[in-house]
Amino acid sequence: MLRWIYRIEKSFRTYRQLVRRSGDLHQEDTNVAILGGGITGLASAYFLSQRLPRCRITLFEGGSRLGGWLRSQRVDVSNGKVVFEQGPRTLRPTKPNGWITLDLVRDLGMEDQILMTSKESVAAQNRFIFFPDHLVRLPGPGSSLWGNLNTVFFEPLFKGMFFAGFTEIAKPARSNVDDESIGSFISRRWNPALADNIASAVIHGIYAGDIYQLSMRSIFPFLWYAEEIKKSVTAAMIGGWSLRWPQDAALDSERAKAPPASDTIRAARDASVFTFKKGTGQLAERLEAELRTSHNVDIRLNTRVEQLDQQREESPLITPSVTVMVVNMYFPNPSILPARGFGYLLPRSLPFEQNPERALGVVFDSDATIGQDEVPGTKITVMLGGHWWDGWEAYPDEEQGANMAKDILQRHLGISEEPQAIHVGLQKDCIPQYAVGHHSRMAQVHEALKKFRGRLRVAGNSYNGVGLNDCVRSARDVVMSLVEGSNQRTGLEGFDKENKPVLWQK
């Protein structure tokens, strides 16, 4: 008789969660264990306590605090405080996942804590890539047609890309390929320069990953299925096609019955990004406060679950991840930046002498999140490492990290002033990496978990989206499947072979 054993690795690194169901959830003696107190675990416990108030919920967290990678700190500086974000700093209100997060914010009574960045702000309109030795503003709103064309035709960053956009439509579509790396896909459909100069920078900012290792199918599903269904990504975009999943259509039907949104929520839905007055960590704090007043929720900190035993076969649930060092800095000088905007990213094609520290990107926080700080000045965050540090046995210490970040600002932005406040944090294994074949691996895990007949389900950023909104959505979905009582749900229904997206025109 085989025993199924799943080991939770390294104190619940990532947002990986497991929800265990036993018996009938509508009975008073039902027990549900939630493993991990990151945003997915907190949201799962909250949704479950609201939907099934008689269910007994135990939330296990291996560390001494809740919130996972949501780490907002209020730091003392001259004449006031500023907010430093060590994890995610803003949320996109994109539908449907962003709207689910906003619904949660409304239910928690946090509407008055929302800070929005409008689509007309400098942070929304000015985004940069550093290449090969200067900041390049990406074409888009806020610049004239001539300015955008001048950038595309004359900046080395965009060399050969204008004509590649026209030739893509005539290139043959792939056949009989289950998955492909982002770098390979973009090089094949357009050209290697677009992959190395643009796509790698974007992926550095989101996944801190390597475009030649990460899955195109899992990370950019619209582009993947556009080639499969329409034979050309360009043709699909020109035709105004969008990707629609069956689960999103069902969610839209359910949300159509919801009460009208308030003026604040409607405004947030139309913003470029949003956050909170005390940082994104405020959402985790509010969830924790709600759970601690709930009669049916028991929170156990410093309780690391080492294994789960079940009479089942072994199932691989591990998704690899990368480590990122985050360096926050505050300067009293409000005019220290040479350009205004959200910040800039660094592509893999950047010459080594311009990035020996292996930085991923730099965020101009004082432009990106206005309204959090009590005093004027400039906040900057430098992100280091990610896939560049794969295989390292040791990482830079805090002093080394601070010096590396200051060297980057000196070299790229000409900033030589010493920051008044600085905070360095090493986030080990913080961002899951959806490597090529991720979809197929998750489909296999989905089938393996079916054997538990609903007693073991998963949610979190190791599976279907690394963002905060993705985590809240996955928490909501797994709780709804528990409430509905299906014993074949696993939390990975999106990877079922019968779950196929369609392209549709609005």
From the alpha-carbon coordinates, what is the Rg to the nearest angstrom? 23 Å
Q: Which class best fits the helix and strand makeup?
A: alpha+beta
User: How much β-strand is present in the residues?
Assistant: 15-25%
Q: Tally the helices.
A: 17
Strand order of the largest sheet: 9-8-15-16-17-14-18
Number of strands: 20
Distance between the termini: 54 Å
Mean pLDDT: 91
**Gross geometry:** globular
Low-confidence region ranges: 1-23
Please give the share of residues in helix: 25-40%
Major beta-sheet overview:
7 strands, mixed
In brief:
The chain is of the alpha+beta class.
Please provide a written account of the structure.
α1 (39-51) runs parallel beside α13 and α6 (182-189) packs antiparallel against α7 (192-206). By secondary structure, this protein is of the alpha+beta class. The protein has helices spanning 39-51, 97-107, 122-125, 145-154, 161-167, 182-189, 192-206, 216-219, 221-230, 233-238, 246-255, 263-269, 281-292, 365-368, 398-413, 438-449, 468-484, and strands spanning 4-6, 17-21, 31-35, 56-60, 72-77, 80-85, 114-117, 127-130, 135-137, 241-244, 273-276, 297-300, 308-310, 321-331, 343-345, 359-363, 378-385, 421-432, 456-459, 502-505. The strands form six sheets. The chain has a seven-stranded mixed β-sheet. The protein has a five-stranded mixed β-sheet with strand order 12-4-3-2-19, with helices on one face. The chain has a two-stranded antiparallel sheet with strand order 1-13.
